[in-house]
Design the sequence.
C-alpha cells in the first residue's frame, strides 16, 4: 500500500510547553514527523506554543505557528491553511486533547479535515477508562477491579466496595497527574477530590491495589494493513506503585519467560486492534503478579509517548518517524530500516545490550515537597545508558544523572542496616542507592525483596556490584584483568578510586598505562545480524570496537544531559543547531549525550552519536576513540549548559582543544574578582557585592553592602540555591538549608550582591568573534529584578527601553565580551535602576533564551555561534547568509512583539501532609518550560503567551487581592481597572480599606489565621472554587503563613495567581484583547517575509 | 573462574570462562537472536550438532521449568553466552539453567565478546567451532586442528539421533477431527500440542519409517517436522514423501519438513551463509500481502525462482506462499494441485511470536476438506 495521494497538507499539533510528564520527547517525535512529511512532499503546517523546540524552526515546516494550543486558535489555523489532515498523535496528551476538543467543537467536520494516526473513536477507546476496560475484557485479558466515579460520594461508595488501599486515576490527564494511592477515607477525599478537579471530564477511576506487582510496558506499531510489531519491551525496576516515568526502567524485559512475554504480546496486539489505532504507535502497560503470573492491563496510550522516545533510542527503531509514514498510508514492509538499509521496518528489534533509564528529580528546588514516589509523575528528566550487561548499564545510568549521591558508593554510611531497610520500604528518588547501601551493610536479598518488592534478580545484580567492590578493595594490586572486570560492571574511575583509596586521575593513569580502554559497540536493531549503516555507539569493555575510521575534520559537541529545571530543551536546541550547521559546512560532527528525550540523540542529527554519560571519564574515552583517525579540531562545550561547561577544564587538562571561548575565560566570568576587573576596565557598574565561603563571612559582607542581598553559589545553573535575603536571621536560615547540598565551600564561594529593588531586568544574547559583536536580541523582563530570568516573562523587542538605553546595553555587552575574550555566544543580564545600568552576570555560553531569540527575530544564533567557534568571522557569516546584515539590537517599527512566559510545576509537588508547595517566584528557577506569544503589539502577544501557558485571566468573576504594603501603590491602577471591568473584588481587611480610600469597592474577607469557629476564611473560599483569580504579592522579608495558605489553595484549585504587580498589569493590559475574542494567527514564515520587506523597503 | 576457549575453524580463538559442563565439544557455530526463550532454544532438536551463541547478553534469569521444554533433553552441541545469571527469578522457575547444562553434560563458555563473534559469523558464514575447558584445553594449534577435523554441517544427517525410537500416540484434545501421522525429524513438543489441541490424534513415527509404515494406521494427513541437518542428506525421507503426495494425502511440513517437501517436489535446497535464527523475522504471506513476525531456525532453504513454478517432479503448480522480507528467502510452499503445504519457519513459535498459528487451522481445514 503506497502513500495516500489524497493527503497534500497536514497540520501537526505539538505538545506545548515542557511540563512534568510531557517533556522534550515530543519535540523529538514532532521534529521527526515534520521531517518525514516534508520529505514526502507534503505541506506541513505546525502549531506549537513552545519556542525552545527544534520542531518550531521555520525549516521544519512550511507554516510554523507559535501560537497557543487552544481549539479556537487551531480552528483559526485550519480556516486559514485548509489542511487535508491533522496528525495529533505525536504531540503528547496536549495534541490528543486538542484534537478531541476540535472534534467536540465540530471543527473537523466543518472544514472537512481528517484525523490521521488515530481517529476519534480510537482516542476515546484508549483514553476513556470505562470503554477501555470493557475492551480489554472483551479481548480476553484481565483488568484490575475498578469503579468509575464522577462525584466524591461515588468515590467513597466505590472504595468501600473495593476495599482499601485503592488507586485513584483521573481520566484524560497526563503523567499520572492527580492520581495516587489512598489507604483510608481521608487520603481518598484529598486525592480523589484533586483528581476530579484535574480531569477535564470530572471523572476518576478507583482500582484494586496491585502495589508491588511487576510492571512492564510494550511499545507497538500498527499499519493500515493490520501489520503489527512490538518495537520494545520495557521492565520497571520499581514495582507497581511508582509512576513509570519516575521508575528506573530496563529494556528489554529481563525477568519474563518467552511464554509470559508472548502472552503480553498477544494481548497487546488484540488491544491495539480493538482500540483501532489504525496507523502509528501505542504503548500498553501491564502489571504481573510475581506470585502466580496473573496479568493485568493497566493502561494504553493511543499515541507516541515518552516511552516511545525511550524505546526508539533503546532499539534504534525510530517510532515517531515511522508513525508519520504510516499515517500517510505506507505500510511497515514498505518502509526501510534506516539502520541496516536492506531490511524492512516490519520486524521486531532485538537487542544484544541492556538499556537502563534513570529518572532525574528536582526535589531540591521544592524543599517542602514530599519526595515519596507515587503514581503521579514528579521527575523532570531522565538519563539513559547502554551497556552490555545490566550492572554496567545501571551504573552508567546513575552517573549520567550528574547529581551528587546518585551513584553507588562504598564510603562511610551514617545509617545502620536496620535504618536503611526501613528507608527502602518507601520509594523515593534516593531508593536505589539506599538499597545498595543496605545490601552492602548486610541486609539480605530476601529482606530487601520483602521491603521493596523489587525483583530478586535486580537485587542480586546490586549484590553482585557490591561483591565486585569488596573483591576490588581486597586485591593486593590492581592489574588489567581486575580493572577490566570492574569496568565490565560499570565502575567509574572515581568509584574505583574511592574503593582503592586513589584519586580519579591515578586510576585513569593506571588504566592508560595498562592500555585498558573501552571499545564502542553499535545500536543496530538486529543484534549484529545485519551490518549497520548508522554510527550510533555505546562503550563497553570488550574485545572488538566498531568505530569506523574517518579522515575528516571532526568536532565533538557535548550535549546537556538529563533535563532538569534550569537546563532543558533550550540547550538541546543549541547543540542540534550546531550539529546541523557544522555538518552543512563540511565538518564531521560527533554528539555525546545521554538524554533519550532529545533530538540531539537521534541517530541522524550528527554524523556520529555516542550515547554515553557526560562525565570526564566517559567523554575522554569517546574523544580517544575518535582521535584514532581523522583530525579532531576540538570540543564544543558552550552549548550544552552547565553540564558541558563543567567538563571544559578537565578536558583541557588532558590536552583536548576546546573550541570558542576558553575554559579560563569561562572561569573569569564566574570568578568575582576577575570579572570585576573586566567591568572596572570597561567602566561598568555592578551592584555592591562580595564573596563568602561561610556564614560568618557572608554576614560581614551583607552588613557592608546593606540588605536586601541576593545570595547565590557560583558555578550553578538555574539559580540553584539563589535567594533574596532581607536580614541576618534569614541569612542564617539560608546556610542551614543549603548545608547538606555542598553548594558553598572554599573552592565554590557564595556570591553576595546588593539586591536592587524595583529595577528593570534586561537580558541580551549575542555572538562575539573577537572583533565584532552581533546582537541576537535584547529582552526586557516583565517582572522586576529578583525573579529568576528563567521564571520571568520577557518581551522582545523591549517595550519600555529607549534606543539610548539599548545602545548602552549593547555597548556594555561588547566590552564584556572583549574583556572575556569570548568566541561564540555570550549572554549578559543587566538591571536598570534609576537609569543606572548594573551588570548582574555574564555567561559566555548558550543561554536559555537563544531559541526564543531565534524564533522571535528569525536569527539562527546557535548555528552562527557554532561556526564562530569553528573559526569563522561574523563578517563571513553575514556574507554567506548565515546571519542577516543587521543584528537584533535596533529593530524597525512594525517588528512584531514576542513575549516569553514560564510554565511552573507547582501542581506536581505536594508536601508530606498532602498540600501543594508554595508557588511564590524567586531568584531560584523553578519553571519547567516556556511558551511564546507573538503578535503586532505587546498586549496581544502577552495575551497569547498567557493563553499558551494556560494562565489567562478569566473574562469575568471574582478577584482576591492581598498585597504587601510596598506593592500597594503599583496595584491600585490594575485593581481599579478590574473593578471597572466588572470583577467582584475581595481583599483582606487592610487592603480593602486602602482600596476603599481610593474609591474601589472591595469586600473584606477573613484571613486564614484569623478565622475562628465556623467562619469562612479566604482559603476556604478559594478551595470551594468561589475565587477565580488571586493576586498575592508576598511582603519581602518572609513568606508569611497566610500567603502560603492562599497560594497553595489557589494552586490546588487550579486558578490563575499573580505574585507580582508587573504580571498583573501586563495581564490587564491584554484583557481587552481577550475580550474581543479571536486571536489572529500568522506563521513564522510570513513574519520572515515581512521582515525582509521591511528591511529592503 | 575457570578458563574456557571458543575456537573457530578459521583459527580465531576467544578466551572466556567455563560455563556448564567442562570438557570439549565440537559443532557448527551459529548465533540465535531471540531475547526470550533460551530454554526452548536449547531443547529444540533442530539445534543438534550446533554450538549456539545467544546474542542476548543475560541468559538464565528465569531458570528452567518442565513446561517449557521443547523435548526431553538439551540438544545444542555447545553454548556460548555473554553473562550467565547467578540465580533464577520467575514464579515458574524450577531449576537453574546451569544445573541443567551440567547434568546433561553441555559444554559452554561465557564472558566472551558475543557480539564480535556474531559479526564474524555474519561476515564469514556459519563455521565449525569447538569449546574447550578444564582438561580439554590444549595448545592453540591442536584445538584448531580438532575443530577442523570435525564433520561439516553440509551433508550431515542427524535425523536418526533426534527421532523417536518407537511409534507413540498423543490423543486429540476436544472433539476428534482425525489422525495425523508425524515423521519425527526432531519434533518440538509445542508442535504436537498445537496439532492435538485442534482435535487431531497425533501418531509420531521414527525418521526412517517407510510410506507403508507411516500410512499403516490410516492417518487423515501426514506431517513432517522440523529437525537438524542438510536436507540433501535425507534422500529416503524425500522418496517416502513423494509416495505420500502421490496418494493425495494432505501434507503439512515445518522447517526441515519444508525443505523435504521442496526436494520432493523437485526443487533444490542450499545452505545459507549464516542462516536465520531468531524470533523477530518478518515474513510476507503472498495470499494476503500481510507481514507475520516469525520464529526462524534454519541454515538451509529451498530455491524457487519466481512466485510460482511447476513441480519438476510432476506434482503440478507450486506457489511460494511466504517469503522472508529481510533477504527474500523462500519461507513457505503451497501446492495448487495437491493438498500439501509447508513453511520454513516455525508457526508453533516456542519461543517466538504467535502470528502464524493460523497455519495449524489451515491444516485442519485441509484435512476436513479431503476426508
Sequence:
Amino acid at each position: 500500500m503506497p502513500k495516500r495521494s489524497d493527503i497534500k497538507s497536514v497540520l501537526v499539533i505539538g505538545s506545548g510547553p515542557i511540563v512534568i510528564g510531557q517533556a522534550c520527547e515530543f519535540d523529538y517525535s514532532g521534529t521527526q514527523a515534520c521531517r518525514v512529511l516534508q520529505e514526502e512532499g507534503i505541506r506541513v503546517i505546525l502549531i506549537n506554543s513552545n519556542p525552545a523546540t527544534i520542531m518550531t524552526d521555520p525549516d521544519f515546516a512550511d507554516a510554523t505557528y507559535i501560537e497557543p494550543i487552544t481549539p479556537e486558535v487551531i480552528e483559526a489555523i485550519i480556516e486559514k491553511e485548509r489542511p487535508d489532515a491533522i496528525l495529533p498523535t505525536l504531540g503528547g496528551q496536549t495534541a490528543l486533547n486538542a484534537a478531541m476538543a476540535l472534534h467536540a467543537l465540530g471543527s473537523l467536520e466543518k472544514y472537512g479535515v481528517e484525523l490521521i494516526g488515530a481517529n476519534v473513536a480510537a482516542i476515546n477507546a484508549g483514553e476513556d477508562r470505562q470503554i477501555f476496560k470493557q475492551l480489554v475484557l472483551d479481548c480476553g485479558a484481565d483488568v484490575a477491579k475498578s469503579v468509575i466515579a464522577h462525584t466524591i460520594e461515588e468515590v467513597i461508595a466505590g472504595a468501600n466496595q473495593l476495599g482499601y488501599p485503592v488507586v485513584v486515576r483521573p481520566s484524560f490527564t497526563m503523567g499520572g497527574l492527580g492520581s495516587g494511592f489512598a489507604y483510608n477515607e481521608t487520603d481518598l477525599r484529598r486525592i480523589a477530590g484533586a483528581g476530579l478537579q484535574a480531569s477535564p471530564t470530572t471523572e476518576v477511576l478507583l482500582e484494586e491495589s496491585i502495589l508491588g506487582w511487576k510492571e512492564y510496558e510494550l511499545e507497538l506499531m500498527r499499519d493500515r494493513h493490520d501489520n503489527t510489531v512490538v518495537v520494545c519491551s520495557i521492565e520497571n525496576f520499581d514495582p507497581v506503585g511508582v509512576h513509570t516515568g519516575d521508575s528506573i526502567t530496563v529494556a528489554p524485559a529481563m525477568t519474563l519467560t518467552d511464554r509470559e512475554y508472548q502472552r503480553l504480546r498477544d494481548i497487546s496486539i488484540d488491544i491495539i486492534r480493538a482500540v483501532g489505532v489504525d496507523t502509528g504507535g501505542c504503548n500498553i502497560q501491564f502489571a504481573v503478579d510475581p506470585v502466580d503470573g496473573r496479568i493485568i492491563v493497566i493502561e494504553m496510550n493511543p499515541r507516541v509517548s515518552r516511552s516511545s522516545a525511550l524505546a526508539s533510542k533503546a532499539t534504534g527503531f525510530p517510532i515517531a518517524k515511522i508513525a508519520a509514514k504510516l499515517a500517510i498510508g505506507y505500510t511497515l514492509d514498505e518502509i526501510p530500516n534506516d539502520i541496516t538499509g536492506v531490511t524492512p521496518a516490519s520486524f521486531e528489534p532485538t537487542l544484544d545490550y541492556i538499556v537502563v533509564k534513570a529518572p532525574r528529580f528536582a526535589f531540591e528546588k521544592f524543599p517542602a515537597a514530599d519526595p515519596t514516589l507515587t503514581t503521579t509523575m514528579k521527575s523532570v528528566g531522565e538519563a539513559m545508558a547502554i551497556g552490555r550487561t545490566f550492572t554496567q548499564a545501571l551504573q552508567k545510568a546513575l552517573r549520567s544523572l550528574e547529581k551528587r549521591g546518585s551513584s553507588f558508593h562504598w564510603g562511610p554510611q551514617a545509617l545502620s542496616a536496620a535504618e536503611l531497610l526501613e528507608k527502602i520500604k518507601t520509594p523515593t528518588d534516593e531508593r536505589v542507592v539506599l538499597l545498595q547501601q543496605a545490601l552492602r551493610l548486610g541486609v539480605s536479598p530476601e529482606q530487601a525483596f520483602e521491603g521493596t518488592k523489587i525483583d530478586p534478580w535486580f537485587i542480586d545484580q546490586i549484590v553482585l556490584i557490591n561483591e565486585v567492590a569488596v573483591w576490588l578493595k581486597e586485591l593486593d594490586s590492581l592489574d588489567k584483568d581486575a580493572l577490566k572486570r570492574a569496568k565490565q560492571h560499570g565502575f567509574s574511575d572515581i568509584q574505583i578510586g574511592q574503593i582503592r583509596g586513589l584519586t580519579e586521575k591515578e586510576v585513569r593513569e593506571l588504566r592508560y598505562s595498562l592500555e585498558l580502554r573501552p571499545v564502542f559497540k553499535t545500536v543496530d536493531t538486529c543484534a549484529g545480524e545485519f551490518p549497520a549503516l548508522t554510527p550510533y555507539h555505546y562503550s563497553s569493555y570488550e574485545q572488538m570496537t566498531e568505530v569506523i575510521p574517518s579522515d575528516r575534520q571532526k568536532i565533538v559537541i557535548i550535549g546537556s544531559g538529563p533535563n532538569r529545571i534550569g537546563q532543558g530543551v533550550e540547550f538541546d536546541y543549541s547543540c542540534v543547531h550546531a550539529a546541523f550547521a557544522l555538518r552543512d559546512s563540511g565538518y564531521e560532527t560527533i554528539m555525546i549525550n545521554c538524554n533519550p528525550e532529545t533530538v540531539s540523540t537521534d541517530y541522524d542529527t550528527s554524523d556520529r552519536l555516542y550515547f554515553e554519560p557526560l562525565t570526564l571519564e566517559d567523554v575522554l574515552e569517546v574523544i580517544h576513540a575518535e582521535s584514532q583517525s581523522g583530525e579532531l579540531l576540538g570540543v564544543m562545550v558552550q552549548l550544552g549548559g552547565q553540564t558541558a561547561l563543567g567538563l571544559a577544564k578537565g578536558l583541557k587538562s588532558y590536552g583536548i582543544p576546546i573550541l570558542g571561548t576558553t575554559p579560563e575565560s569561562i572561569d573569569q566570568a564566574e570568578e568575582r574578582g576577575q570579572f570585576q576587573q573586566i567591568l572596572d576596565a570597561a567602566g561598568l557598574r555592578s551592584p555592591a557585592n562580595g564573596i563568602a565561603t561561610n556564614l560568618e563571612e557572608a554576614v560581614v559582607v551583607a552588613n557592608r553592602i546593606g540588605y536586601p542581598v541576593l545570595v547565590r553559589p557560583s558555578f550553578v545553573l538555574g539559580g540553584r540555591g539563589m535567594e533574596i535575603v532581607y536580614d541576618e536571621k534569614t541569612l542564617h536560615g539560608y546556610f542551614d538549608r543549603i548545608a547538606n547540598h555542598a553548594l558553598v565551600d572554599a573552592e565554590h564561594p557564595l556570591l553576595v550582591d546588593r539586591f536592587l529593588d524595583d529595577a528593570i531586568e534586561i537580558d541580551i544574547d549575542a555572538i562575539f568573534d573577537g572583533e565584532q559583536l552581533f546582537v541576537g536580541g535584547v529582552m526586557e523582563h516583565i517582572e522586576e529584578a529578583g525573579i529568576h530570568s528563567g521564571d520571568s516573562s520577557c518581551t522582545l523587542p523591549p517595550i519600555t527601553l529607549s534606543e539610548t538605553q539599548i545602545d548602552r546595553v549593547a555597548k556594555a555587552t561588547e566590552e564584556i565580551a572583549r574583556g572575556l575574550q569570548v568566541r561564540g555566544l555570550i549572554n549578559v543580564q543587566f538591571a536598570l535602576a534609576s537609569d543606572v545600568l548594573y551588570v548582574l552576570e555574564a555567561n559566555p555560553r548558550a543561554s536559555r533564551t537563544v531559541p526564543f531569540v531565534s524564533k522571535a527575530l528569525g536569527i539562527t544564533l546557535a548555528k552562527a555561534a557554532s561556526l564562530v567557534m569553528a573559526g569563522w568571522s561574523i563578517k563571513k557569516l553575514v556574507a554567506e547568509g548565515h546571519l542577516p546584515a543587521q543584528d537584533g539590537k535596533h529593530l524597525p517599527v512594525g517588528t512584531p512583539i514576542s513575549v516569553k512566559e514560564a510554565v511552573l510545576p507547582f501542581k506536581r509537588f505536594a508536601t508530606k501532609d498532602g498540600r501543594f508547595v508554595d508557588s511564590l517566584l524567586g531568584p531560584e528557577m523553578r519553571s519547567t518550560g516556556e511558551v511564546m506569544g507573538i503578535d503586532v503589539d505587546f498586549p496581544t502577544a502577552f495575551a497569547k503567551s498567557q493563553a499558551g501557558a494556560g494562565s489567562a485571566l478569566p473574562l469575568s468573576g471574582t478577584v482576591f487581592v492581598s498585597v504587601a504594603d510596598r506593592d500597594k501603590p503599583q496595584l491600585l491602577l490594575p485593581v481599579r481597572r478590574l473593578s471597572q471591568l466588572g470583577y467582584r473584588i475581595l481583599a483582606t481587611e487592610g487592603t480593602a480599606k486602602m482600596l476603599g480610600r481610593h474609591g474601589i469597592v472591595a469586600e473584606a474577607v477573613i484571613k486564614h489565621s484569623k478565622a475562628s469557629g465556623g467562619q469562612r476564611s479566604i482559603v476556604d473560599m478559594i478551595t470551594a472554587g468561589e475565587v477565580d483569580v488571586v493576586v498575592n504579592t508576598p511582603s519581602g522579608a518572609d513568606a508569611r503563613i497566610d500567603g502560603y495558605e492562599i497560594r497553595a489553595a489557589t494552586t490546588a484549585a487550579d486558578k490563575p495567581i499573580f505574585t507580582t504587580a508587573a504580571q498583573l498589569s501586563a495581564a490587564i493590559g491584554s484583557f481587552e484583547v481577550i475580550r474581543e475574542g479571536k486571536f489572529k494567527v500568522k506563521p513564522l514564515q510570513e513574519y520572515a517575509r515581512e521582515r525582509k520587506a521591511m528591511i529592503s523597503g | 573462574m575457570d578458563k574456557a576457549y571458543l575456537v573457530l575453524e578459521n583459527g580465531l580463538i576467544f578466551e572466556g570462562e567455563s560455563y556448564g559442563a567442562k570438557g570439549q565439544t565440537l559443532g557448527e557455530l551459529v548465533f540465535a537472536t531471540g531475547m526470550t526463550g533460551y530454554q526452548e532454544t536449547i531443547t529444540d532438536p533442530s539445534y543438534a550438532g550446533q554450538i549456539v551463541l545467544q546474542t542476548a547478553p543475560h541468559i538464565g534469569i528465569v531458570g528452567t521449568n518442565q513446561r517449557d521444554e521443547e523435548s526431553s533433553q538439551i540438544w545444542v552441541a555447545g553454548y556460548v553466552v555473554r553473562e550467565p545469571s547467578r540465580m533464577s527469578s520467575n514464579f515458574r522457575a524450577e531449576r537453574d539453567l546451569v544445573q541443567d547444562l551440567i547434568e546433561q553434560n553441555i559444554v559452554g563458555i561465557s564472558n566472551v565478546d558475543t557480539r564480535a563473534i556474531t559479526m564474524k559469523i555474519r561476515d564469514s558464514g556459519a563455521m565449525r567451532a569447538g569449546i574447550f575447558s578444564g582438561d580439554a584445553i590444549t595448545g592453540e594449534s591442536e584445538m584448531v586442528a580438532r575443530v577442523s577435523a570435525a564433520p561439516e554441517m553440509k551433508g550431515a544427517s542427524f535425523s536418526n539421533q533426534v527421532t523417536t525410537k518407537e511409534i507413540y500416540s498423543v490423543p486429540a484434545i476436544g472433539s476428534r477431527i482425525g489422525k495425523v501421522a508425524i515423521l519425527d525429524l526432531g519434533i518440538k513438543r509445542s508442535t504436537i500440542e498445537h496439532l492435538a489441541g485442534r482435535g487431531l490424534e497425533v501418531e509420531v513415527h521414527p525418521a526412517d519409517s517407510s510410506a507403508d509404515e507411516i500410512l499403516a494406521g490410516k492417518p487423515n494427513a501426514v506431517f513432517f517436522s522440523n529437525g537438524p541437518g542438510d536436507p540433501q542428506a535425507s534422500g529416503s525421507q524425500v522418496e517416502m514423501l513423494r509416495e505420500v503426495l502421490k496418494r493425495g494425502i494432505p501434507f503439512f511440513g515445518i522447517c526441515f519438513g519444508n525443505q523435504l517437501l521442496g526436494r520432493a517436489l523437485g526443487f533444490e535446497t542450499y545452505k545459507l551463509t549464516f542462516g536465520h535464527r531468531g524470533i523477530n523475522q518478518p515474513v510476507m504471506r503472498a495470499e494476503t500481502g500481510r507481514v507475520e513476525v516469525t520464529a526462524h531456525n534454519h541454515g538451509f532453504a529451498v530455491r524457487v525462482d519466481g512466485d510460482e513454478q511447476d513441480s519438476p517432479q510432476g506434482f503440478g503448480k507450486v506457489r511460494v506462499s511466504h517469503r522472508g522480507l529481510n533477504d527474500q528467502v523462500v519461507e513457505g510452499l503451497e501446492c495448487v494441485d495437491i493438498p500439501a503445504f509447508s513453511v520454513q519457519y516455525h508457526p508453533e513459535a516456542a519461543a517466538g511470536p504467535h502470528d502464524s498459528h493460523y497455519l495449524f487451522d489451515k491444516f485442519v481445514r485441509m484435512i476436513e476438506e479431503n476426508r
Observations:
- The CA atoms of residues 172 and 201 of chain B lie 4 Å apart.
- Chain B touches chain A through 53 residues (CB under 8 Å).
- The radius of gyration of chain B is 20 Å.
